[in-house]
Write a structure and sequence with these properties.
three-stranded mixed sheet; 5 domains; Ubiquitin-like (UB roll); single chain; about 650 residues; about 10% helix; about 45% strand; mainly beta; 16-stranded antiparallel sheet
Length: about 650
C-alpha cells in the first residue's frame, strides 16, 4: 500500500504473488521484476513492476512407466484436465496447468481403486518443458500391484434388516474385482436411491452409520466387513413452507410426499423436490429443504422455495409454407385462482389463445380452464372451447368443445396418470380429397391417454422420462355423429444428465420418439383433415403439425400433383438433442444441437421405417416471462424436398411464445 515501509523481502513477496497468478494460468515461465526509484529526499520510492508473460504451454505427450495390466491410454483416461490432443480435435484443449495436473494425479489414484488396484501408487513424475516449442512432456512412474478381488463381504451390528437384504442392496458378489466407486455408490448413495444407506434413511434412521473395514487376504483378495450403527428412528414433527409469496401453502404441500408424523424418508424428500420442480413455479436450483433436528427422535423439515413468474402473455410469429405469415396472441395463467383471479396462487390453469394466418388463411380462438386438484385429490377437471378456420387448399371450419378429466395413479407408481376426454365438434368443409369429404359433419369422440412422466423440471428437465399411449375414437359407427375413425399415438422421451456444474446438471441428452396411426372403422368412411398427420418446419400454422426441422413448414405428407399436402394416416419421428443450460435463474436459457428424422405415409402398407427425412442442426431456447419461450433453430435437411425434388438444405426456424 502507498506509504508502507518496504524491504527487499517485501519486493520478493510482491514478485511471488504475481508469479503465482501467472502460474495458475499456465504461464510457468512468466518473469516478474521490480525496481524502486527514489522520488525525494524523504526516502519515498516508486515501485515499477515489469512483467514478461512468456507463453502458454501445451501437453505434447504423457508417458507412463511401470504399467503392465493397463495401457498408457487407459491410465491417462483418468485425467480430466491434463490431456494431449490430435490434429483433428479442434474442440479439445491440451493447455497445461500445474495445479490441475496435481488434481488429476489424485483422480488417477481413485481410478486405481475403481480398477481393483488397491496397492497401486504413483512413484514419481517428471515434467519436461520445451521452451522453443512451448510444449510439456510428462513422464509418470507407477507401480500397479495385483488386481484385488472380493473374497467375502458381510454386515455386523444390523438388527432392523437381515444381512441378505443389505447384501441385495450392495450388489457385490464374492469373486468380482473390487471397484471402489461401485462399492461406495451402492453403500452410501446412488442416483436411483437403491443403496444400503437409503434403505435406512427412507425408514427414519437418519443417523444410521455404515463403516466398512477391509482385511487383505493374500496378495489378490480382500474381505469386507461393514459395521452398522443404526441409531434412533426419526419422525417428522413439523413441515414448514418458506419463501412463497404467491403460491398457496396447500398447492406446495400437495406435491410433498411426507407429512408430520411420518418417519423421515430421504427418497420422499427427493421425490417432493422433483414434484415441485415440475410445477415450474419455483427456481429449481434453490429447491433444497433444511432438515432441522429437534431431539433424538424428531426433526423439522423446512422447505424453502424461490418463486418466479409463470403466467405468460405469449405472442408467436412464424412463416408456414401453407399459411404464409402465422402468429398467435394469448395469455396463459399457470398459477390461477378462479376464486381470487387477481391474486392467483391456487395452481389452476386459465388460457386464451388466438392464432391467425396471412390473408385469413388460418384463424383459431380457444379458451380453456383446468383445475389440477379437485376437492384436494389428485384428480384434474377442465374444459376447452374452440373455433378454428382454415382456408388454404383445404377449406374447413371446426367449432366445438371438450370436457377433460384426469387422475394421478398410485400403481405401478405415482408417476402414472390417466386422462379422459369427451368432445363434440361441428366440421364444415368445402374441399374433398382422398381422405376428407366436403359438407357439414359432426363428430362425437372419446379419448384416453395413459402416461408416465418423471421429469424433474418442466422447462429444462435434467433427468427422467415421459411416455404416453393415446387412443381416440369418433363414434359415427355407433350413430353418434357422422364421422367415425380410430386414432392411436405413442410417445416416449427420456433425458439423461451428462455434466454437472456446481452440483446441478447443465449438459443433458434428450431422446424422443413419436408414432401415430389413424384409420376409419368402416371401409367407406373418410377422416376429417384435422385428424390426419402433417409434418415439417417448426410446427406452426394449421392443424397439429409435427415439427421436423430442416424442411419447409407443412411440406411432408401425401402430396397432390399441385403440391397440396393431403396429410397421411401414419407418422413417425425420432429426435436426439444435446442441451446445455447457460443459466437457469432468473430465467432458463439453453443451447442445443439436434439430429432428427421423420416421415408421414398414406397408410401402413406404404410406411417405410427406413424411408425417413433426416436433419441436423443447432438452436437456442430462452424463457422470458411474461412473453413465453423464445427460440430459433438452424437445421439442414439431408433429403430432397418432397415437392421440389431438391435437397432441402439449410432452413431457419423461429419460435416465439411456443
Amino acid at each position: 500500500m502507498v506509504g508502507d515501509i518496504i524491504s527487499a523481502y517485501d519486493e520478493y513477496l510482491v514478485r511471488q504473488s504475481i508469479k503465482k497468478l501467472y502460474t495458475k494460468e499456465g504461464l510457468l515461465f512468466a518473469k516478474v521484476e521490480t525496481k524502486l526509484t527514489s522520488i525525494d529526499s524523504l526516502n519515498y520510492y516508486d515501485m515499477a513492476i515489469t512483467v514478461t508473460e512468456g507463453f502458454e504451454f501445451k501437453v505434447d505427450s504423457i508417458d507412463v512407466v511401470g504399467n503392465v495390466i493397463f495401457t498408457d491410454d487407459e491410465i491417462v483416461s483418468a485425467f480430466e484436465n491434463t490431456k494431449t490432443k490430435s490434429w483433428y480435435q479442434v474442440w479439445a484443449s491440451n493447455k497445461f496447468d500445474m495445479s490441475k495436473y496435481a488434481e488429476d494425479k489424485k483422480k488417477l489414484q481413485e481410478w486405481f481403486l475403481d480398477k481393483g488396484l488397491l496397492d497401486a501408487e504413483i512413484l514419481g513424475d517428471t515434467v519436461m518443458y520445451d521452451e522453443e516449442k512451448h510444449t510439456v512432456t510428462l513422464q509418470i512412474r507407477i507401480s500397479e500391484g495385483p488386481r484385488v478381488a472380493i473374497r467375502k463381504v458381510g454386515f455386523t451390528g444390523n438388527t432392523i434388516y437381515t444381512e441378505a437384504t443389505l447384501l441385495g442392496r450392495l450388489h457385490v458378489e464374492p469373486g468380482e474385482v473390487f471397484n471402489q466407486k461401485k462399492f461406495n455408490d451402492n453403500l452410501f448413495v446412488n442416483q436411483d436411491q437403491s443403496d444400503v444407506t437409503s434403505l435406512y434413511a427412507d425408514n427414519g434412521y437418519l443417523g444410521a452409520r455404515l463403516d466398512p473395514e477391509f482385511t487383505r487376504i493374500g496378495k489378490d483378495s480382500v474381505d469386507v466387513l461393514i459395521r452398522v450403527v443404526e441409531g434412533q428412528q426419526y419422525t417428522i414433527r413439523r413441515v414448514e413452507i418458506v419463501g412463497n409469496t404467491k403460491t398457496r401453502d396447500r398447492v406446495i404441500r400437495r406435491e410433498l410426499y411426507f407429512r408430520p408424523g411420518d418417519y423421515f424418508s430421504r427418497s420422499a424428500i427427493i421425490r417432493s423436490i422433483r414434484g415441485l420442480g415440475v410445477l415450474n413455479f419455483f427456481n429449481p436450483e434453490t429447491l433444497k429443504p433444511d432438515i432441522l433436528p429437534v431431539d433424538k427422535t424428531k426433526v423439522d423439515v423446512q422447505m424453502k422455495v424461490e418463486e418466479r413468474s409463470t403466467d405468460t402473455f405469449n405472442a408467436s410469429v412464424g412463416f408456414a409454407g401453407a399459411f404464409g405469415l402465422t402468429g398467435s396472441l394469448g395469455i396463459t395463467l399457470n398459477n390461477f385462482d378462479i376464486s381470487e383471479p387477481f391474486r392467483g396462487g391456487a395452481g389452476q390453469i386459465m388460457s386464451f389463445q388466438w392464432e391467425f394466418g396471412q390473408a385469413s388463411r388460418l384463424q383459431t380462438f380457444q379458451v380453456s380452464f383446468t383445475e389440477p386438484w379437485l376437492f384436494g385429490e389428485p384428480t384434474s377437471i377442465g374444459f376447452n372451447l374452440y373455433d378454428t378456420k382454415q382456408n388454404y387448399n383445404i377449406s374447413v371450419r371446426r367449432t366445438g368443445g371438450a370436457i377433460n378429466v384426469g387422475r394421478r395413479f398410485r400403481f405401478p407408481d405415482d408417476f402414472f396418470r390417466g386422462d379422459w376426454s369427451t368432445s363434440f365438434e361441428r366440421i364444415e368443409s368445402n374441399t374433398a380429397s382422398i381422405f376428407s369429404r366436403a359438407g357439414i359433419n359432426t363428430s362425437m369422440s372419446i379419448s384416453q391417454v395413459i402416461s408416465r412422466t418423471s421429469y424433474d423440471n418442466a422447462v429444462f428437465p435434467t433427468s427422467g422420462s415421459r411416455f404416453a399411449i393415446s387412443l381416440r375414437a369418433s363414434l359415427g359407427a355407433l350413430g353418434l355423429g357422422t364421422t367415425d375413425f380410430g386414432k392411436a399415438g405413442f410417445t416416449f422421451d427420456m433425458v439423461n444428465p451428462l455434466l454437472s456444474i456446481n452440483g446441478y446438471p447443465r449438459l443433458v441428452m434428450f431422446l424422443g420418439t413419436e408414432l401415430g396411426f389413424v384409420d376409419g372403422f368402416k371401409q367407406d368412411t373418410t377422416i376429417p383433415p384435422q385428424e390426419l398427420y402433417y409434418m415439417g418446419g417448426n410446427g406452426l400454422g394449421g392443424f397439429a403439425i409435427t415439427p421436423l426441422r430442416g424442411y419447409r413448414d407443412n411440406s411432408i405428407g401425401v402430396l397432390a400433383p399441385n403440391g397440396q399436402n393431403l396429410g397421411g394416416r401414419v407418422q413417425a419421428r425420432f429426435v436426439a438433442e444435446l442441451r446445455f443450460a447457460l443459466a437457469l435463474s432468473p430465467f432458463p436459457i439453453y443451447l442445443l444441437s439436434f439430429a432428427e428424422a421423420g416421415n408421414v405415409w398414406a397408410n401402413l402398407r406404404t410406411a417405410d421405417p427406413f424411408g425417413l427425412n433426416r436433419a441436423a442442426g443447432f438452436g437456442m431456447r430462452l424463457l422470458l416471462q411474461p412473453i413465453g419461450l423464445l427460440g430459433f433453430d438452424v437445421g439442414y435437411g439431408f433429403d430432397p424436398d418432397p415437392f421440389t425434388g431438391q435437397t432441402s438444405g439449410w432452413r431457419f426456424h423461429f419460435q416465439f411464445g411456443r
